[in-house]
Amino acid sequence: MKPRFVFLFLSAVALLCGCADDFQYGSPYQCSFVYFASDHATSALSLSLDNPGQFCIVTTRQERGITHIVAVPNSGSYGAEALDVPMVTAKENDRLSYSHMGAGGRLIIGCTFSSLTSTPLRAYDGECRACLDELGRAAAPLDWSSDGQTLVCRRCLRTYNPNADGTVIAAQGQVNKPLYQYRIDLAGGRLWVHSN
Fold first, then answer.
1. Which domain holds residue 129?
2. Is the Cβ–Cβ distance between 191 and 34 less than 8 Å?
3. Is residue 92 part of a domain?
4. Tens-place pLDDT, residues 100-141
5. Which of 41, 61, 74, 177 could form a disulfide linkage to 148, CB 3.0–4.6 angstroms apart?
6. Residue 24, domain member (yes or no)
């Protein structure tokens, strides 16, 4: 009887540990964003990937058939060319789609101060989690606070900390869940933010 109990206990622990990663990345919104950081080494987004505490709000825009990656960093001084990067190579503009960028086509991407995890890179949905859950649609994009250290929802006034896995740090007695987080991989200068 004892070996069976030990087996069941260890199986339950393994199951719970295996699900922890899925819980962290449990967004119901599609995301598949690819960016060749090595091709744009001086862009604000590329620079934020290896500078602890640096994050960018990332969106896209179209101009004359060319996709532009637009980054709004939380700090630092950048020229216009580092903030609005045209995707002009065939691999970027012809072969990639930028239509799956979370709930509202807006991501928060950067590097935390944390050294407790295997990678300090983080990618969050750029919409307020509480408002997404309440409304069922994107209607509350996050913006940087005046000091650039937190993200603020102008609709419900929640404040999120991107350096602490997108946790809520200020809300008025409400249910508080962290921002939806996406998987992030950086290999060979290729950044991939994805939901699965």
1. 29-194
2. yes
3. yes
4. 999 999 999 999 987 666 679 999 999 999 999 999 999 999
5. 74
6. no
d(CA 96, CA 107): 17
Whether the predicted pLDDT of 146 surpasses 70: yes
Interior CA angle at 128 toward 126 and 133, to 5°?
120
Write the CATH number for 85. 2.102.10.10
pLDDT value at residue 141: 97
Q: Which residue has the tokens 């339950």?
A: 12
**Residue 10 is assigned to a structural domain of this protein:** no
Distance CA 185, CA 151 (A): 23
Burial class (CB in 10 A: 0-12, 13-18, 19+), 161: middle
What's the whole-number mean pLDDT along residues 170-196? 87
- The predicted-structure confidence for 39-81, as pLDDT tens digits, reads as follows 999 999 999 999 999 999 999 999 998 999 999 999 988 999 9
Q: Please say whether the beta carbons of 34 and 23 come within 8 A.
A: no
Residue type, 74: N
**Within-domain flag for 6:** no
Q: CA-based diameter of the chain, in Å?
A: 71
